[in-house]
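Section 3.1: Structural characterization of target chains.
Under the original work plan, the team committed to producing a structural model for every single-chain target entering the pipeline before any wet-lab resources were allocated. The record below documents one such target. The sequence was received from the expression subgroup and is listed exactly as submitted; it comprises 264 residues.
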Amino acid sequence: MRTFLTSLGFLFIFSLISSGQEDFKVIKVNGSIVMKTNNVSLQTGTVFSDKETLVFGTDDATAAVINEQKGRMILTSKSHDLSAARSNYLPAMYNISTRGGSLSNLIDLQNHFSGKYVVLDRSEIVLDEMSFPMDKDNFFFLRYTFKSEEINKKLEFNADTLIIDKKSLYTIDGKPIPRPDNTVIKLFYRNGDKSVQINEFNLIFPDTKQLKEELKIILETMKDRSPKEQIGEINAYLYEEYGKVYQPNLTSWLENNLGLAMIK
């Protein structure tokens, strides 16, 4: 196995020319990254100095870290470009699929359900009732693979609202399953006796307990910033680390789990 050594002092050249020491806090780690001074692995909540030497177990290992002055950044075994260390506090530009509002046509649906699509336990998506009526004869269903068998799951709905719920989705014959064979999901719309495939995408259900700890670190570092800036940064972080989130799902989850509400 190849081992990669790098120093934050080398990754962030500006740290070397500044006086004193700066600490960074780990939000999330993908793969194995170890602090050379004490042979301790980075994990959510780890605090370390900008002078620390890091040992990357593989070349694809990454760590999302944050500093109150420098903002949030991603460390990789090859991120020696100073531009990669700039602050990322400003909210990112979002795909239309992350916004709220009714989805009114096929293109809207295809754009919405594409790429890495994140659901925080349960999401309620508002659709145009005229374009996509939902009743016993007209409904949406998802298809995934479990133990090499294709499983079709009819999605719940309430009037014009389509519901994706992890518990009901990953239940077969009344018994919960750990997870499908992979995250690739196909979405279909059943219109009478005809089924139309809407799109194929990756459905991501993050570990919300772990995610809550990650987001707490971001919020602690941004405690003096407005709720709008905080939610913008969280949205950008989720997009980069997990995938795109339907905005009403995110704002509802943040208010219920972290007490963070957008001021209207």
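The helical segments are 8-11, 13-17, 106-112, 166-169, 208-221, 227-241, 247-258.
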